[in-house]
Amino acid sequence: MKIANVEAVPLRMPFNHAGSDRDVTAGGWPALDFCLVKVTTDTGIVGWGDAFSYHCRESVVAAVEHMVKPAAIGQDARDIAGLNHRLQQKFHLFGRYGITLFALSGLDIALWDIAGKAAGLPLATLLGGTTDRTLPAYSSLFILRDKEKVMADVWRSLDEGYEYIKLHEIGEVEVGAAREVAGESIPIMVDVNCPWTPEQAIRMARKLDQFELHWLEEPVFPPEDFNSLARVRGETGVAVAAGENWCTSFQFAQAIEAGAIDYAQPSVTKVGGVTEFRKVVALCEAAGVQVMPHSPYFGPGFLATLQLASAMPNPGLVERFYVTPEASLYGDWINPVNGAFRVPNGPGLGLDPDPDVIKQYRVA
Ligand SMILES: [Mg+2]
């Protein structure tokens, strides 16, 4: 079974969130970008992958079309681990983390979708897990920078049944407001996205500790400063989560060795796909580190995360980016029920993306 074609399928989908009237980045964040990766085999099986592309869609699409596609066509679609390794080696001079690995992740996810379809099994089952379970979800709030909006979104999350909430706030006021609304028993995580020096991070972790953080995410820049993350943990006692910006399982191994994290956050659309994600899971299980998948996605990467989590003895918490996309590629499956995700049990990733939604949101 050979790879007959690889195609980047870029989408751009408007979305709503509680901070809709606020310009989030310099250019705003008006739409969710997708780079779906459609792989077809010479036996006619179609697999769907997902390459990370928020704010970088055109570059990722170019990497899929001009780097990954020519290297993948004609290769054995079943030799997923081998092809992943060979392409990592072939592309290493273009950067071991970033656009190249995002594109490669998309191919890898599609090939695992094909493997499941060829076997007639959902990916979770293929990997030794089961789809006959639910996965606890957490509500991952948008960057709001507004106390009232944070409070409203925490209320709404609790009302919808979420039992865990993550903020993307860096201020005491907003975090304190969330704790006030959530009460004492709801775990609150705070993701700050690498804003601080080690000293600032230690000072802020001590300040935020009064709000009983379940974890503090990416407190230090640069993200791969493992020794400083270890210092934050050691000197404050606050649990640290990180990993969405790390390069393959090799940096996860170094982070674990340095004692940098309580929670590991591999991202299937960034880290090197299902193949590399599984290596991270194996490392973490051997070291007693809990995996908390990074998955603020609505495409095949989200389904791949559900399937991977279902194949883990302890799936951790699955992230639901708390925004409202204009449409869904997978109907209601992107929404948790009573705070937990169901796992689709069709072959491969469990479901194929809705062709009408693709048609409506496809961009050049
Ligand atoms: Mg994060």
Outline the structure in words.
The chain has 364 residues and is α/β, with parallel strands linked by helices. It has two domains: 3-120, 2-Layer Sandwich (Enolase-like, domain 1); 125-355, TIM Barrel (Alpha-Beta Barrel), CATH 3.20.20.120. 39% of the residues lie in helices and 19% in strands. It is built from twelve helices and 13 strands. The longest helix is centred in the first third of the chain and has 21 residues, at 99-119. The radius of gyration is 20 Å and the shape is globular. The model has no long low-confidence stretch (mean pLDDT 96).
Task: Give the structure's gist in a few sentences.
The chain has 364 residues and is α/β, with parallel strands linked by helices. It has helices spanning 57-72, 80-90, 99-119, 123-126, 147-159, 172-182, 198-208, 226-236, 248-258, 273-287, 300-310, 355-361; strands at 3-16, 31-41, 46-51, 134-141, 165-167, 188-191, 213-217, 240-242, 263-264, 290-291, 318-322, 324-325, 340-342.
Uncertain stretches of 5 or more adjacent residues: none
Task: Give the beta-strand count.
Answer: 13
Which bin fits the share of residues in helices?
25-40%
| Structure ligands | magnesium ion
The count of helical stretches stands at 12
**In percent, how much strand structure appears in the residues?**
15-25%
Mind telling me the CATH class of the largest domain? Alpha Beta
